[in-house]
Amino acid sequence: MIENARVPEAERQTFHVVIVGHVDHGKSTVVGRLLADTGALPQGKLEAVRRECERTGKPFEYAFLLDALSDEQDQGITIDTARCFFKSATRDYIIIDAPGHIEFLKNMISGAARAEAAVLVIDAKEGVRENSRRHGYILAMLGIRQVVVCVNKMDLVGYDQKHFRAIEAEYRAFLEGIGAVSPRAFVPVAAIAGENLASRGKATPWYDGPTLLELLDKLPKAPPRTEQPLRMPLQAVYKFTKHGDDRRIFAGRIEAGRVAVGDKVVFSPSNKISTVRSIEAFNAPPRTRIEAGWSTGFTLTEEIYVTRGEIMSHVERPPLVSTRLRANMIWLGKKPLIAGRDYKLKLGTAAVPVVLHRINKVIDASELDHRLDKSQVDRNDVADVTLEVRQPVAFDLTSDCEATGRFVIVDGYDMAGGGIITAAVADDLRDLRAEARTRDFNWVPGGVTTADRARRSGHRSALVMFVGKAGSGKMRYARALERALFDAGRTAYMLDGQNVLLGVDHDLWVDAAQSELVRRFGEVVHLLLNAGLIVVSTTNAIGLADATAVQALIPDAPMLLIDIDPTDASAQACDLRIRGIEPEADVIAQITALLAERQITSMV
Amino acid sequence: MDHLEQLEQQSVYILREAFRHFERLCMLWSIGKDSTVLLWLARKAFFGHVPFPLVHIDTSYKLPEMIAYRDKLALEYKLQMVVGQNVEALAAQDTFPDRLAANPNMSAEEQAQVRTACCGRLKAQALGATLHGTGIRRRLNLQTGQYETDDDHQPYTGVIVGARADEEGSRSKERYFSPRDKNNLWDVGDQPPEFWNQYKTDFAPGTHVRIHPLLDWTELNIWEYVKREAIPTVPLYYDQGSGTRYRSLGCGPCQSPIKSTSKNVDDIIVELRSGALRNVAERSGRLQDGKHGLEELRRDGYM
After folding, report:
1. Whole-number Å distance between alpha carbons of B207 and A412
2. Are B17 and B201 in contact (CB under 8 A)?
3. Cis upstream peptide for A183 (omega within 30°)
4. What residues are paired with A120 via a beta bridge?
5. List of chain A residues whose C-beta atoms are within 8 Å of the C-beta of residue B25
6. Contacts of residue B213 in chain A, CB cutoff 8 Å?
7. Which pLDDT tens digits describe chain B residue by residue (303 residues)?
8. How far apart are CA A179 and CA A298, in angstroms?
9. Spatial distance between the Cα atoms of A95 and A98, rounded to a whole number of angstroms
10. What dihedral do alpha carbons A231, A245, B214, A403 form, nearest 10°?
11. Which residues of A touch B293 (CB under 8 A)?
12. Would you say A279 and A288 are in contact if contact means Cβ atoms under 8 Å apart?
């Protein structure tokens, strides 16, 4: 064994490694033996477990060392991830022992998702099994690039080199087949005997590679993500006025890149732009620049209204924005992932309603190369899917930025799946969104800011849009709302689509494309919103099928959709549904409450 | 960024997620080194503020130094300090010290059982009642420095706790966000997955979530951070000349000091790095833990 110079405590790094593999292939034995051989066990612990085994007549296993909970001792399998700590000569390890039983796949993922490297254990005698493959696939999906494969229980196959090479060849071929990263190395080990774990064994003279511990010591820490484009998912905007603090702090963790005081930054998807005024911190020296990894906070020079879930970037390299994402994902939900059901997508700090748009393929997890024609994604399936979110989200492809290129899906109260984004799928609104972005990034501001206008009028701008079939009463309610808002001192304006047709659209022929009418209408709305108004409108004149096209042109302002549906059968997502028979005053009261709730008339 | 900074940044992120997702959020403050580091991290996360209440369960057997230190910091940091207590058990003298006094010949085994049961009442039960709002809550009036009955009886749905994975076996299986059911129980076998930095933040009415921002910290990390940030700590952690000090703080009657001449934070860091305490469990001075004591207590809601 190569004796590395011992790195002093104060300079040591910590490295997270997850141990995965099929059930009973010996993961816990590998960990137990590593702990024992690196002197990580409290004195007497090993002896105590041995004595306990003698007393109960069970053969001693290193795995027993890890069984801290009685649940596990009874079942003899690891059911949850357990953290263990040990030290090599060069660094400190946190080992996450992940369960190999299919029942506990979610626990394996929880363990693996926070690891920097993985050790995948394959039983030499049993060979590559279902979860050897599934775990290999999941490691790739979770973004773990450093994988070491231990071919364990070599003692059971007489330390046979051919046997070892055959498993290596089979598993390498499998990983290449699914496009996963090739493992760093394969090590023949017999964990029970300590062979090639922390020290070189005598039983494998044909193996001249490093021991498992030597391999682990050589795995590099992930390179810092500071050279990538800036990405900071906005976690919160804090203002602790009650505590006598007037700072408005935009807080979040920088997931990639770096940023300095004076930088112009944009928030997506709202396209709002401002400049970093200061970097805030408690009990730390002041600083003018900061980079990936820091959970920090900024004050900005221009006050802008942005909400959690948006991604802060530099203007030159913004993230993607869409409502459709193609993804590789794993489903862990008790109920299957199906079309037509509402889920919640959590991506960065955003949380938005999402539906399954289509299943491109479900991969049979036991084989992982077999395409199944399935109409749903079942528990423990891995799948290639297209998801559709109800409102645009900012994201990256996982190949460009991992932290903003992955998501989880919540079903009810439970996290039911997770995945990585492989492509942005063009939706119908892509062109409008691109138009809005170019417009907003190059917008020439006047001398009066949005915040100035809001302070004077006592509210922010917003669009209240009435939708519904002809004759349902949209116009009647819209007029009444405009009047009521005006009487309450709001700067409100009812934009009738007909008036846009008469003027702005005068040059268009009667058979002009619907999309151009919508675009012009949306741009007019945008100007009115920029002037600080609460705009009230209906879909009457331009026959909008749905209002999302208008929304794509006004990413920086909230839109309230009021759906009037006498039949009460509408499936359209909206902020308020009425039947059209309610008194105007009641509807106005409800909308007024919504405006306050959305912090349009009650500014924070 | 060094390892300590990484830990700090992760904890700050978790604290902010907790604050975002739980309207009824509190942080447990045992006055020990871990939860005091946690309190400090909250001030980091919220730029000098602590925007939620700190809950302390007073068994009445805590050493007076701890209570004095608690109130000093609470006033200095302007904390929303809430204290809970199982007054019924104390009134009924249903505690380990009371029962030992009544029966001084108690066998060691019986003592262990009574200690665990005492913890169950004075800590786990008191905590449950305080969190649910069914027990008495007293709140520190920052103007007068006195504790007053708290009019707030709403349950807390998010509880931030300073548990560390390296402390003891059962804690190594915790998630950062760990749900507890209506009966305060922890289903170790069926915990939700935790992908990357996405945590369990949706929960059914009646359940609550424990949040563990310190899960990846070790005892050494805690002391290194205390030193780096110059965080004030209770003097009980240091040898004051007797050649002993407390390594983990609990109730007076159920804790014993360890042999150590560490007189300050630097000494403790040297001591921990040297491996001198490697073969002594951190909670070995906590006499209620027993064989399965702590795990049972934790399932029943103990921290």
Report:
1. 14
2. yes
3. no
4. A20, A149
5. none
6. none
7. 888 999 999 999 999 999 999 999 999 999 999 999 999 999 999 999 999 999 999 988 888 888 999 999 999 999 999 999 998 888 888 888 888 888 888 888 888 888 888 888 888 899 999 999 999 899 999 999 999 999 999 999 999 999 887 776 556 667 889 887 766 666 666 677 788 888 888 888 777 889 999 988 989 999 999 999 999 999 999 999 999 999 988 887 888 889 999 999 999 999 998 877 876 767 666 666 554 555 566 655 565
8. 40
9. 9
10. -10
11. none
12. yes
> ipTM, 2 decimals?
0.91
A293 contact B CB<8A? yes
| CATH superfamily placement of domain B3-217 | HUPs (3.40.50.620)
Residues in chain A: 604
Structure tokens at B173: 């299986």
CB within 8 Å of chain B, chain A residues 3-62: 9-10, 12-14, 42-44
Q: Find, among A66, A116, A88, A92, the residue nearest to B219 by Cα.
A: A92
CA distance A86 to chain B (A): 11
- The residue among A283, A291, A329, A402 with the most chain B CBs within 10 A of its CB, best to mutate, is A283
Residue A282 and residue B43: Cβ atoms within 8 Å? yes
Spell out the domains of chain A, with CATH numbers in brackets. 9-218 (3.40.50.300), 226-314 (2.40.30.10), 320-427 (2.40.30.10), 454-597 (3.40.50.300)
Q: Are A247 and B47 in contact (CB under 8 A)?
A: yes
Q: Print burial letters for A154-171: b (CB count within 10 Å at least 16), e (below 16).
A: bbebebeeebbeebbeeb
- Round the CA-based radius of gyration of chain A to a whole number and report it: 30
